[in-house]
Design goal:
2 copies of one chain form a homodimer.
Chain A: E1 2-7, H1 15-25, E2 33-35, H2 49-54, H3 62-74, E3 77-86, E4 89-98, E5 102-107, H4 115-118, E6 128-131, E7 134-138, H5 147-155, E8 160-164, H6 172-183, E9 186-190, E10 193-198, E11 201-206, E12 210-212, E13 218-221, E14 228-233
Parallel strand pairs in A: 1-2, 2-3, 7-8, 8-9
Antiparallel strand pairs in A: 1-14, 3-4, 4-5, 6-7, 9-12, 10-11, 12-13
Chain lengths: ~260, ~260
C-alpha cells in the first residue's frame, strides 16, 4: 500500500486557506493513507482558551467535511488534526476519515506545554481501526515521548501509526525510529513548517515529516522549512511479524508480569 | 558523582586473564560507579548449555570475589555480568557489588537469540538499589529494546541505569538516547569489543560503550574496536526532576489507566 505525508505551512485561523493549500498539494496524489499535520486548519499558537474555542468544531464540522471531500477525491484514508468541541470541552484531536464510510476521532492524551491551558486531555484509550485490511492507530505529536502510546497501539494490532504533529523539539524523528523498531510498526509522522508569533508565544515548527519503517529505517523525510509531499510504498504485512530473529519475537518475549506500571 | 565504563576484549573462557585485563585498566581509575560488560569474564559465544554451565558460578564465586576486590581497590560501586548458577539453573546475570557492604544480582529477563538455549530467563522484577544516596537500576544488553525495562527502573526511582552489554546489533546506542530522554535518567552502557567464532556461531561485538545523560545527550562514547575506559562527572539530581518544561512532568503526565499492557 502507499502512505503519504502532506507537510504544510498553515496560516493561523484561516481554515479555508489551509484547506485550499492541502487541496492544491493533493492534486494527482495517489495514496491509500494520507496523514496531515496536527491542527492543520487552525494553526497552533493560541493566545487564550477563548480563541481556541472559537476555532473548535464538532466532528461533523467544516474540517470533517473537507477531509471527507479529500478522501473522496483521492480515494485515500485521511488522518488530520482539528480542535474538537465535545460536550462543552475542547480537545486537540485528530479525525480519521474514509469517504462516508468511516469517521473516528482521537483526543490527544498527552498535551504539550501550554496546550494544557486550552485543551482538555483525552480520556479515551488508544484505539486501532481496521480499514481495507490495514490496521491504523492514531497518536498526536507529543504522544511520541511516552513509549506507552505507540506500544498501546501496537499491542492492539496497529500496523501503521498515523502521527499528525506540530513539532518544535528536535527529538521526535529520531525517537520514531526506536518506536517503530521496538514495536515493528510503520509510522507516518506529518509535521508542519513555519513560525507563529502571537502574544508572548513564539514557535518555530521544524518540518522533517518522516515515514518510518517497521525496522527503524527512515523511508522518507521532508525538509525542515519547505512545504513537501511524499508517497512511499510499504508492505504492511511486515508489521504483523514481530520476529527479530529465529529466537526473538518482540511481543512474545515481553514479560508484562515483571514490569512496573505506576 | 563520577561514572565510568570499562570496555574490554574478553578472552573466551579465561576468567583470570579477563579479571587481570580489568584490573590493569582500573589502575588509577577514580569513579563512584564502574560498569563492566555483560559476561565480561567468560565470553559470550557458547557451543552448548554444558559449556555455559561449566563457566557458571554462584553469586559468591570467583567473579564476585574479583568484583569485591575491585570495589575495595577503587572505592567504586561495581556492576558487571557473569553466568549465575542458582538452584540448578543458569542465568545471564549481573552482580552489583560495593565493598563487602552490598551484593545484589539481576537475572536478565529478555534473553537474546541463542542465549535462550543456554540460560533461563530471569523471573524477578527489576529492582533499584539506593547506595550512597544514589539510586541505581540494572538492566542487561537486549533489555534495551523493551521500553518497559528502563521504564520499570525509572518508575521505581532509578537515577542511573547500569547496563552491561555484549552488543552485536547497531541500534542500542541510539535507542539509549531515547530511553534516557523519555525517563530522564542517566545510563552507562558498557559494551565489549572483539570477535568470537566458535562452532557455527560468529559474533562481532560493536564497542561504542556510551554514557548517556538524562536529556538524551551522549556524554561519552567509546570506539567500536578498541579497549577503552572513560569517566564522566554527572549531577545525578537532574534525574530526580522529570519536568521537561513549566507544564510537562514526564511522569505526572503519564496516564496508566489509558494504556494497553498485554
Amino acid at each position: 500500500m502507499k502512505v503519504a505525508y502532506i507537510q504544510t505551512s498553515p496560516i493561523f485561523g484561516e481554515k479555508e486557506q489551509n484547506f485550499n493549500q492541502i487541496d492544491d498539494l493533493s492534486t494527482d496524489l495517489k495514496a491509500d493513507l494520507i496523514v496531515l499535520p496536527e491542527l492543520f486548519a487552525t494553526g497552533y499558537t493560541f493566545k487564550s482558551r477563548d480563541e481556541a474555542n472559537k476555532l473548535a468544531e464538532s466532528s461533523n464540522g467544516k474540517t470533517y467535511q473537507f477531509l471527507k471531500s479529500l478522501s473522496f477525491k483521492t480515494s485515500a484514508i485521511i488522518v488530520g488534526g482539528f480542535i474538537e468541541l465535545l460536550k462543552g470541552k475542547i480537545y486537540n484531536s485528530s479525525l480519521l476519515v474514509f469517504k462516508d464510510l468511516i469517521k473516528a476521532t482521537y483526543q490527544k492524551i498527552h498535551l504539550f506545554n501550554q496546550e494544557k491551558l486550552w485543551f482538555s486531555p483525552g480520556k479515551e484509550k488508544y484505539r486501532v481501526y481496521d480499514i481495507n485490511n490495514t490496521k491504523i492507530g492514531i497518536m498526536i505529536c507529543f504522544d511520541w515521548i511516552f513509549p506507552e502510546a505507540t506500544r498501546s497501539l501496537a499491542l492492539q494490532g496497529a500496523e501503521i501509526i498515523a502521527h499528525p504533529s506540530n513539532l518544535v523539539l528536535p527529538y521526535c524523528q529520531n525517537a520514531m525510529k526506536i518506536r517503530c523498531l521496538e514495536n515493528r510498526v510503520f509510522a507516518v509522522t506529518t509535521n508542519r513548517i513555519g513560525k507563529e508569533s502571537r502574544g508572548d508565544n513564539r514557535f518555530l515548527f521544524t518540518g522533517g515529516s518522516q515515514i518510518t519503517s517497521y525496522n527503524g529505517e527512515v523511508l522518507a523525510k521532508a525538509p525542515k522549512d519547505e512545504i513537501h509531499v511524499e508517497v512511499v510504498s510499504i508492505d504492511v504485512s511486515n508489521a504483523q511479524n514481530k520476529k527479530l530473529n529465529d529466537y526473538n519475537d518482540l511481543f512474545k518475549d515481553r514479560n508484562p508480569q515483571l514490569y512496573t506500571y505506576e
